[in-house]
Design a protein that fits this description.
This protein is an alpha/beta fold and 178 residues long. It contains six helices and five strands, in the order E-H-E-H-E-H-E-H-H-E-H. The protein has one domain: 3-Layer(aba) Sandwich (Rossmann fold), CATH 3.40.50. 47% of the residues lie in helices and 15% in strands.
């Protein structure tokens, strides 16, 4: 494989299936014998308290992801696939600077009943505050993502299993089995 020419970015609101799709993309890439690296942006900014100069932890997220990408690249060429949220041109530019590659976002969407069901399954009773936080905010984030219109494709995840969604993402980028 040649060096990757872009980053595949699974974009979307909470509960649309980004992480599940990311995991299945990894499975499909292995089956196709395609070198890859996966990153879920959520794990690169989960630190508290944030620095005064970075209240949303986006600067530290970019620095962390850039460091991990350098490590992955040192093992050879591979396709980078990331899940997270890009809701502004500034978000896209930050990721492009971190990876030193163009970012090509694909937005995953789902029906509200599916999003709410997925979010309710994600959190335990002890995590009720996190569940309520996400339930209270997912519609607003969906609206921001739609208004930003930064995605080159939109894939509906309701009624589809994550493996099927993953296959649709890879098909969009013409990444298929050998």
């Amino acid at each position: 494989m040649n060096s990757p020419e872009f980053v595949i970015f699974l974009n979307g609101s909470y509960g649309v299936g980004k992480t599940s799709t990311l995991n299945h993309i990894g499975d499909l890439m292995v089956e196709a014998l395609k070198p890859f690296s996966l990153m879920d942006a959520d794990w690169f900014h989960r630190s508290w308290p944030p620095a005064a100069h970075d209240p949303a932890n986006v600067v530290i997220e970019a620095v962390n992801m850039a460091a991990v990408w350098r490590n992955y690249k040192s093992t050879g060429p591979r396709q980078l696939i990331v899940s997270g949220v890009i809701s502004s041109p500034q978000d896209c530019a930050r990721y492009e600077a971190a990876f030193e590659l163009p970012v090509r976002p694909v937005r995953l969407i789902a029906e509200e009943r599916d999003i709410e069901s997925r979010l309710r399954r994600r959190y335990t009773q002890e995590q009720d505050a996190s569940l309520l936080w996400h339930l209270d905010r997912y519609r607003e984030l969906q609206s921001r993502l739609a208004q930003a219109d930064l995605d080159e494709n939109i894939i509906e995840t309701s009624g589809c299993g994550p493996r099927d969604v993953a296959a649709k993402v890879l098909e969009h980028f013409s990444i298929t089995k050998p």
